[in-house]
Amino acid sequence: MTEQCQPPILSHKARKRFGQNFLRDKNIISRIIHALQVQAEDAVVEIGPGQGALTGALQARAGHLDLVELDRDLIPRLQMQFGLGNAVQIHQGDALTFDFSRLARPGQPLRIVGNLPYNISVPLLFHLIECTAPVKDMHFMLQKEVVDRMTAGVGERHYGRLGIMIQYHCHVIPLFGVPPSAFSPVPRVDSAFVRLVPHQRPPVPCKDLAWLERVVQAAFSARRKTLRNGLKSLLDRDELGQLDIDPGLRPEQVSMAAFVRLADYLASRS
Ligand code: SAM
After folding, report:
1. pTM for the full model?
2. Ligand 1: centre distance to CA 120 (Å)
3. Which end of the chain is more exposed for a tag (fewer CB within 10 A), N or C?
4. At 181, is the secondary structure helix, strand, or coil?
């Protein structure tokens, strides 16, 4: 049986539009904190602290903690609980447009953490991999299906744009699954906790990232079509053949290395 946290000090009605499923299971919270191994020299950023299920433990361990929370109604509570010391800064704002590079601290790569709002998790992951500040690692609670997409390799059912672009930037390590009962309100989906560690160098470096994003997006927006048909606005079957890519393949059969070859070719041709 799982142990549940005490009810919150200030009452707050969870808002669906902000993806508010608050963590309630103390065992899961401990596993998260244990997985993070926060050290006194760490600069931690928590996205969506909500009612502070993780925040107290992060504050107790980190040298510096930045909190980014969209819901204005939760800010006074966060200020009351965590805002007094100068080692914690609270930013009311939208993580989707937040400039995380402004939190960069000399000699302290950021450690980004969050039980993310599931309704915006995919665009938020894309926003975060574009962050130009040095990032040591990122740990997120996500919908399990999103973690499956992030970790899928070529030929697997969940392989697609999200996995290719995330794996281009980061090593993705799924840590453990989390049942719906760990949250309140209880979500309809299973969750998983995942670690992302940015690569020093991408596994297959690409000359022009914008072209990689464009060609991957074009291929997977026509997932059922062969490359010859799905990419016909960008290149023809002879060009695919010259790049040693079978024009009859479907996008889920195309490796990251082949997408990088396509992107490099399109960049050099334009
Ligand atoms: N960390 C808390 C926990 O584990 O109980 C709350 C997690 S809840 C799933 C997601 C949190 O993200 C909520 O506090 C919500 O208000 C906040 N949030 C939603 N959209 C956001 C956004 N665009 N930017 C920043 N925070 C957001």
Report:
1. 0.94
2. 10
3. N
4. helix
